[in-house]
Specification:
The protein is built from eleven helices and five strands, in the order H-H-H-E-E-E-H-H-E-H-H-E-H-H-H-H. The chain has 378 residues and is α/β, with parallel strands linked by helices. Strand 1 and strand 2 (173-179) form a beta hairpin.
């Protein structure tokens, strides 16, 4: 439309210019006629030009509209495809995210269940620890705790016939456990001791001086227990020459051997061997092996008798195998002789059949077996 307006303006200016020129050259009347004529011609030209330009503009707008519609359709198709692709990817992503979320939630549920179980176990363990502290705070209850642990270890390691709990030793004293072993070494007494107060004082000491004093108190307490066991539970002629002192704490046992060598040496001189749960289990395993060896020695003569009987049985078996082998040899020989006789019988049958054939067909037989004719000649 801007081009059409510019063209019309140009034509109008040209017509005015022609009119002015005509007015200058001729008179007013002739100039007006020329101007009118020129204006009419210009108006006609302008109308034709405007019509052409309108048609061209309409055609251009139509082409532009078609192009815009085609581009719009292409853009719409592209947008539809992109939207479909985005929707598909979004759906896949949502499905995958949903599956991962579900898996994560299931894992979280399982972990929460494990955490709940662990929390319950921790709560129960805390209650047990509190109960254990209550038990260990009482000396009598602490002694019962050591005795119970000793009984569990002994029952797990040895048969019931070789041990006795709260057994009488010497002049009526009772030991926590007595292992009735054959001589040597003989019966071995095991007594459980738990010097917990001294060890707690050692752990709670704030400085080196306090630790040294608590460690000495711990050594003195253990030395007293060692002397008591040596005097009460090592009875000549009734028990072995040594006894065991059971400490139901690996920490106390480690402290003794790490920092109280004098006390450990005292126990060795008094022949009272200090054991922890771990070393007691190893000792009981050795005792079980000793018992097994003793039973083997007791049954050695029976084993020897059985071995002799077995050798006799083997000798008789060898004789019977030899006899059976001789029978097999004889049977094989008889079978060979029977086979020889059968072969002879078969051969004689063949000869008889050939003789019958020659009797039925003398010419053919004579041609085939001339020796038959020789045999029949006088």
């Amino acid at each position: 439309m801007d081009l059409v307006f510019a063209a019309a303006l140009t034509v109008a200016v040209a017509a005015l210019a022609v009119t002015v020129v005509a007015l200058r050259r001729g008179g007013a009347s002739g100039a007006l006629d020329d101007a009118a004529r020129h204006l009419t011609q210009g108006q006609a030209m302008l109308e034709g030009r405007l019509k052409q330009m309108a048609e061209a503009e309409a055609a251009a707008q139509s082409r532009l509209a078609e192009q815009m519609q085609a581009q719009e359709r292409q853009i719409a198709r592209a947008l539809d495809e992109r939207l479909a692709e985005v929707s598909r990817r979004l759906a896949e992503g949502l499905d995958k995210a949903g599956a991962q979320t579900s898996t994560t939630i299931d894992g979280l549920k399982e972990r929460l269940a494990v955490i709940d179980t662990a929390q319950k176990n921790i709560t129960e363990l805390s209650q047990r620890v509190v109960a254990l502290q209550d038990v260990l705070s009482n000396k009598q209850a602490r002694g019962a705790f050591g005795e119970l642990q000793l009984e569990d270890l002994v029952r797990d390691a040895l048969p019931s016939a070789v041990y006795e709990f709260q057994a009488a030793v010497g002049n009526g004293r009772r030991v926590d456990c007595l292992l009735r072993l054959p001589n040597p070494p003989g019966a071995i007494a095991i007594d459980a001791k738990f010097p917990l107060e001294s060890y707690r004082a050692l752990v709670a000491a704030a400085d080196d001086a306090g630790r040294l004093q608590a460690r000495r108190a711990l050594g003195a307490a253990v030395a007293k227990h060692v002397n008591d066991i040596a005097e009460r539970y090592i009875v000549p002629g009734e028990t072995a020459e040594s006894a065991l002192m059971f400490l139901p704490s690996e920490a106390v046992y480690a402290e003794l051997h790490a920092n109280l060598a004098d006390t450990v040496e005292l126990s060795r001189r008094r022949r009272v061997w200090i054991v922890s749960p771990t070393t007691l289990m190893a000792t009981l395993t050795t005792v079980r092996a000793v018992l097994k060896d003793a039973r083997m020695r007791e049954q050695a003569h029976l084993i020897q008798d059985e071995v002799h009987k077995l050798l006799d049985d083997l000798g008789r078996l060898d004789d019977r195998v030899s006899n059976l082998e001789q029978h097999f040899d004889r049977a094989a020989k008889d079978i060979r002789e029977i086979r020889t006789s059968a072969d002879k019988v078969v051969k004689r049958g063949q000869r008889i059949e050939e003789m019958q054939l020659s009797a039925d067909e003398p010419n053919v037989a004579a041609a085939a077996r001339p020796d038959l004719l020789r045999d029949r000649a006088p």
